[in-house]
Specification:
This protein has about 280 residues and is mainly alpha-helical. It has 14 helices and 2 strands. The protein has a two-stranded antiparallel ribbon.
Length: about 280
């Protein structure tokens, strides 16, 4: 109970800005065109990586681990990549997907720790606890953010493999997240991507994770959560249902009188104002 209350003290809210709304909506429209068989419902981001052949080496972070494990890996990697880029470049040069990736990454962590029933079952809280313990043991002295970043990204390949193996024994994701961050940062100089392209890829992975989670959450859980306030995940699930991207709702055909007027239902985000996220 005490740990749960402490997590609430580390939460805050941010506005769901126009760019995020538009990108989510455009993302789902694109998926609707591409997946006529509701394939989007099982899409966690792997397709994003496979569409770019040079990303095949990062596929392990999605296809070889369960969903909550993948969330933690990508959260660590996103934060490390973001801090690394922000100390080297001005934020405006990183493109809109940089900020959107951060917003979605933090929001999915908020769901993982404070609304876990809305996500596919996993052991995310155990992995988070073990990752924090491993970080405390690894950083034997207090470091500033620059030193900590250099320590995480500066581990040589052989040492990192050793630490990853140790982490797999305990359930920690710290060094796996460091490995993924290193792979993402390497895209720029190995494959000559610019940073905007890199962040668009990261953002697309987070969008897929968001829609995957929305599709897997039961309507019963969505309605239960409404007692405590609206969630972005519920809005996304409703939008997906509106677009026919769900197996949980049977959409009725429009009455003939509406068809005669070429009626087309529209979607409004009017009540979606705040986005909770996990700060710790």
């Amino acid at each position: 109970m005490g740990d749960h209350l402490e997590m609430y003290f580390h939460t805050s809210s941010k506005d769901v800005n126009h760019d995020l709304k538009e990108i989510i909506y455009s993302h789902l429209l694109e998926k609707r065109k591409k997946y006529q068989d509701n394939g989007i419902l099982n899409e966690r981001g792997r397709t994003v990586l496979y569409e770019k052949r040079y990303l095949a080496d990062t596929d392990w972070s999605i296809s070889e681990v369960e969903f909550t494990h993948s969330l933690l890996l990508w959260h660590i990697a996103t934060d490390l990549a973001l801090y690394d880029d922000r100390r080297k470049f001005r934020s405006g040069t990183l493109g809109p997907y940089c900020q959107i990736s951060k917003l979605l990454s933090d929001y999915m962590m908020y769901l993982l720790f404070l609304c876990p029933a809305m996500l596919p079952e996993g052991i995310g809280n155990i992995r988070h606890r073990d990752s924090c313990i491993e970080a405390t043991n690894f950083f034997v002295k207090k470091l500033d953010s620059k030193e900590a970043l250099e320590a995480c990204l500066g581990i040589d390949r052989y040492s990192r493999s050793f630490f990853v193996e140790l982490g797999s024994v305990s359930k920690s994701t710290l060094f796996e997240g460091c490995l993924l961050a290193d792979q993402l940062q390497a895209l720029v100089y190995i494959f000559r991507l610019d940073h905007k392209e890199k962040w668009e890829i990261i953002g697309q992975v987070w969008l897929n994770m968001l829609t995957y989670a929305a599709s897997k959450c039961s309507w019963k859980e969505h309605s239960r959560q409404l007692q405590h306030g609206e969630e972005l995940l519920t809005h996304v699930a409703l939008l997906m249902a509106h677009l026919g991207l769900t197996k949980k709702i049977n959409l009725a055909d429009l009455p003939e009188r509406l068809k005669d007027f070429n009626f087309n239902p529209t979607w409004y985000w009017n009540k979606l104002d705040r986005l909770a996220y996990y700060l710790a």
